[in-house]
Design a protein that fits this description.
Layout lengths: L31 H6 L1 H4 L5 H4 L4 H17 L8 E7 L2 E8 L4 E3 H13 L3 H14 L16 E2 L5 E3 L4 H18 L8 H14 L3 E5 L2 E5 L3 E2 L4 E2 L11 E2 L5 H10 L5 H18 L10 E2 L24 H12 L4 H16 L25 H9 L9 H10 L8 H15 L9 H4 L4
Antiparallel strand pairs: 1-2, 2-3, 3-4, 4-5, 6-7, 8-9, 10-11
Helix pairs in contact: 4-15, 5-6, 5-7, 5-15, 7-8, 7-9, 9-10, 9-11, 11-12, 11-13, 13-14, 13-15
């Protein structure tokens, strides 16, 4: 893995002053003290593939192959990353949801996170440039001011101008990591400054009412100021709900260390609130969470999507979120039991037979009852092994290893989750923090 010393070749002159990259040594055995601290503090990121006997060379080759195919493979059947010309800020590119034929803030931010973890600065910058050019609302009178349209056509025309907070959460965190890994650039590539501004809007944005394609809308902040909980959307009529897969306590802990100082205690609180939310939202037997929820953890059947009260596609990511939070920060022991319940449930369904949609108590809801698991859910269930301690844990890691790289119509969501899963399970999804901030607490 890359160390603070070997990374110096990638830094611009003067970047080392005050910025020492956190030592990264995935796959090394943890001491008892390091296990108690969590790997974002100890620097010991577990490589669960190595624990199953796969060589470092084979692991790196698998990740590189997945990146090459999803970013630079056949445009008709494999790639989701597409270069899109340039402007004054440089090259542009977007991640395309092939099935829905749109560009989503979710995918753009995932692409940036993948790029910073793999040291792909050119791709990171091109994605960020496209997002700022075609998704960002700079008009202070727009209800989504300071945010990114969650769904846009590949020609830059918005399909829905309002944001989805998971995009902003990944954008901000990827930018903070980029500032440490590559140092600050100019303009939109002043990564930390861009992240700070985004976090200020997410935390403090006031009500703005204005015209959109869907008529007059009112937008607010992305985190409820009293509950310290991420909203389903800042669009006011649906703002007092949430989405379990938007809860990313590991990232909020990062913000509590490197974000604007005035808000750091709030982000510490938000991280703990999200841990408590998972405990309330996950079913006590299956560990499944709903797609959409109320702030008390109960499912929310949205009027336009009543099936969101079940475990559907959004909810695949919940286990990843609580599991890498446990791996990074070791602040919520409940994550271990939760991952155990979830993996025990899916193992009971058959590792080659489980579906992707269930009622929370475990009734299979897939249209095709005989379809096996898809790559995205296989990846998320493998990431749950970062927290799990059950006998099935290794089986889920091996299942991800054996999973082919997604291609075809549904390769966008499956592919992004697959690549994120490979990075997490291999110990290559890491908290890029200034060394002085890694161990800080509130």
């Amino acid at each position: 893995m890359t160390s603070a010393l070997s990374i110096t070749a990638f830094l611009k002159p003067g970047m080392l002053a005050g910025i020492l990259l956190f030592a990264l040594c995935a796959g090394a055995a943890e001491t008892a003290e390091q296990a108690q601290q969590g790997c974002a503090v100890s620097g010991q990121y577990p490589d669960l593939f190595a624990a199953q006997g796969y060589s470092k060379q084979a692991v790196n080759a698998k990740i590189q192959q997945a990146f090459n195919q999803l970013f630079y493979g056949n445009a008709e059947t494999e790639a989701v990353y597409f270069p899109a010309g340039s402007n004054a800020a440089g090259a542009k590119a977007y991640i395309l949801d092939i099935n829905n034929n749109d560009v989503r803030s979710e995918g753009m931010s995932y692409g940036m996170m993948i790029a910073v973890q793999l040291n792909k600065q050119a791709e990171f910058n091109a994605l960020w440039n496209w997002a700022k050019s075609h998704m960002y609302h700079a008009d202070a009178t727009h209800p989504a001011y300071g945010y990114f349209a969650w769904s846009v056509r590949s020609d830059g025309v918005a399909l829905d101008e309002m944001p989805a907070p998971d995009g902003e959460i990944y954008f901000a965190t990827a930018l903070y990591f980029a500032a440490v890994r590559w140092g600050e650039g100019n303009g939109i590539y002043q990564y930390k400054a861009q992240a700070d501004t985004l976090l200020k809007h997410m935390r403090h944005r006031q009500l703005i009412t204005g015209n959109t394609q869907r008529g007059s809308q009112t937008g607010t902040n992305m985190f409820h100021p009293q509950y310290a909980m991420v909203r389903f959307t800042p669009d006011l009529p649906n703002a007092d709900h949430t989405d379990a897969s938007y809860h990313l306590p590991a990232f909020y802990e990062v913000w509590a260390r490197v974000g604007p100082e005035a808000d750091r205690s709030f982000w510490h609180k938000a991280a703990q609130v999200s841990r408590d939310y998972f405990s309330n939202a996950a079913h006590p037997q299956t560990g499944l969470t709903p797609d959409y929820g109320n702030f008390d953890g109960s499912p929310w059947a949205a009027p336009w999507r009543p099936e969101a009260a079940d475990f559907r596609f959004d909810a695949w990511r919940s286990a990843m979120n609580w599991s890498f939070d446990w791996s990074w920060w070791r602040k919520d022991q409940r994550a271990v039991a939760r991952s155990n319940r979830l993996q025990t449930f899916f193992a009971s369904q058959g590792l080659n037979n489980y579906g992707g949609q269930y009622s929370l108590d475990g009734k299979k809801l897939d249209t095709d009852q005989n379809a096996g698991p898809t790559a995205g859910l296989v990846a998320m269930n493998a990431v749950a092994s970062l927290a799990a301690s059950n006998p099935h844990s290794a089986d889920f890691v091996r299942a991800l290893w054996q999973q082919p790289i997604p291609s075809g119509q549904y390769r966008y969501y499956d592919g992004m989750l697959y690549l994120l899963g490979l990075l997490h399970v291999s110990g290559q999804f890491q908290a890029w923090l200034p060394a002085a901030q890694a161990a800080k607490t509130e």
